[in-house]
Amino acid sequence: MQKLVDLFYKVLEYLLILLLAGMAVMVFINVVMRYTMNSGLTVSDEMARYFFVWLTFIGAVVAFREHGHMGVETLVAMLGRKGRVICMALSNIVIIGVSAIFFWGTWKQFPINWSMSAPVTGLSMGFVYGIGFFTGAGCILIAVERLIRILTGRVTEEELAAFAGENMSIEHLVERS
Prior knowledge:
cell membrane; 8 helices; cell inner membrane; elongated; mainly alpha; transmembrane; transport; transmembrane transporter activity
């Protein structure tokens, strides 16, 4: 099961690469066309914006899985194992709540977004802003899994070190870049 989850996140990483590359290529081609031919591709501006939205929200889930978001590591690093476990549990409870609100907000806004069309492509805005479902659900699933592992006593020292920001060796930083 873990290999399947790892494969899923590897696919997400490749999707992020494709979105970033697609965004960069579209903007570059549009800039070159505007300066050399005095015209541009109207679809490239719109799609670059949508790719950026998707890139940001998919990247948030991947970064959350890898403990890549900002945290108050100086406080957590001063605590012992029990304090870190409590902070990690509280943090995941807050993340579940906030992600649930985000998911619910996306759900409430979705009918409005679905009925609206993008000005150039005609694409439903539900496709653009519906990425909130993925981000909300993804963060909830990760946080619930972590919370279950905390409550059942299966959290590892490596996870606690990552939560406290103590696993930032040169090798780990190179791996993340």
